[in-house]
Amino acid sequence: MSVEIKVPPFSESITEGTLVSIKKKVGERVERDEVVAEIETDKVVLEVNAPQAGAVTAVSKAEGDVVKSGELILTIDPAAAGAAPAAAVATPAVATPAETPRAETPAPVAVAATAAPARAATADANGPAVRKMAAEAGVSVATVPGTGKAGRVTKGDLLAHLAGGATGPRPEQRVPMTRIRARIAERLKEVQNTAALLTTFNEVNMQPVMDLRKKYQDAFTKKHGVKLGFMSFFVKAATEALKEFPVINASVDGKDIVYHGYFDVGIAVSTERGLVVPVLRDTDQMGLADIEKAIAAYGERGRSGKLTLDDLSGGTFSITNGGIFGSMLSTPIVNAPQSAILGMHNIVERPVAENGQVVIRPIMYLALTYDHRIIDGSEAVRFLVKVRDLLQDPTRLVLEV
After folding, report:
1. Chain mean pLDDT for the chain
2. Do residues 319 and 242 touch, judged by C-beta distance below 8 A?
3. Other CB atoms closer than 10 Å to residue 228's CB: what's the count?
4. Is 256 a catalytic residue?
């Protein structure tokens, strides 16, 4: 009896997706739980797995098709053996560098490249969004010279390759937005149109946190298997400040203000597919080690495209770190329906006055963008001062005083 592989159910906020890759052809062998297709939604790329082994007997959709939940993608025959896919030499991953809010998080891992003459196109080796872009342009990735580490092909390589085929001294290349990028643009513009956004700033002396990390880094890493980063301190400081100023943790629903009795902090992460905000749940119950482990896990899943809708759902407050890219100051946009977002920036040694003396200290500028419809300026300022004070006396975060 044939087995149908269909588009999985989407969440309530998602009605359709784009089929960015089909990994099997008619006659090829499929193993149980093997990924046979990838679907890009507004938030994540979903993997479609085979419920059982068999051979592909029909392919009902094509890459690039817009699909809805329940639509048929492939049909397999469990009784048929099927043929193994044609062997192909692994190609380097086509991807832009993925950034995370932690300086300690490594760059995305690229698939190792073989010698350039032996390179052959392999769909599995490349990111779905980039494969889709290459397919729409009618370009084989195997023909694109790679300039990345170990010879990998970057998104810039692909764009440069495409631009090289244009005429004239000022070439242009029109590339359609991915579904995720289009949704990000829509949401950010919606926030600007509906919320009364205002940003307040402060600065924090990061020396106490840096001294604490330096003193306990080795012991912390040995015990917990993860490095002690800056982000865990900011998550804990923000959580403690949210307890004192609950309206910062609230959201607007029509004409109502919804006060959340829990603390779910989203960490903004920029990936090759766009901005995503995985959420740390119940941060008031998490220690520094718990936070670092959760962030590391999210970073890994983000780079490999394994984040789920559950990972990205909800959130009562967000933190973004432009400092890892060198940003001195910014005004982050609130992640609706939340009402506030904390922006971190780079740490720079600056002259400051202490006890009548000018000294050099590692200073970070902080920014809090908030929805002025429900948050008064005094509350926003005092919240940011609370965050600053906790970071400048990090022992209080451990003792929760």
Report:
1. 83
2. no
3. 23
4. no
- Decide: 317 and 341 in contact? Cβ < 8 Å: yes
Active-site choice (157, 372, 389, 393): 372
Q: Among candidates 229, 199, 237, 204, which has minimal Cα distance to 375?
A: 199
pLDDT bucket at 46, cuts 50 / 70 / 90: confident
Q: What angle do CA 88, 3, 48 make, to 5 degrees?
A: 55
pLDDT digits (tens, 9 = 90+) for 88-115: 444 334 333 333 334 343 333 333 333 3
Which residues is 372 bridged to in the sheet? none
Q: Kindly report the pTM of this predicted structure.
A: 0.69
How is residue 25 written in tokens?
Answer: 């052809």
How many Å apart are CA 325 and CA 119, to the nearest integer?
33
Please give the Cα distance from 288 to 31 (Å, whole number).
41
Token pair, residue 227, equals 């490095």
In whole angstroms, how large is the CA radius of gyration of the chain? 24
DSSP state, 142?
A: G
**1 residue type, one letter:** M
Six-digit token string for 15: 């009605």
Q: Which two tokens stand for residue 125?
A: 């080796």
Q: Report the C-alpha gap between 373 and 196 in whole angstroms.
A: 6
The structure tokens listed for 47 are 């993997």
* Residue scoring higher pLDDT (105 or 275): 275
CA distances from 279 to 12, 89, 264, 273 (A): 18, 38, 6, 18
Residues 282, 310, 376, 393: which is the catalytic one? 376
For residue 345, indicate whether it is catalytic: no
Let me know how long the chain is. 401
Looking only at the bridges linking them, the beta strands covering 35-40 and 3-6 are: unpaired
pLDDT digits (tens, 9 = 90+) for 221-236: 999 999 999 999 999 9
State the DSSP code for 8. P
Q: In what order do the strands lie in the sheet with 17-22?
A: 45-49, 35-40, 17-22, 66-67
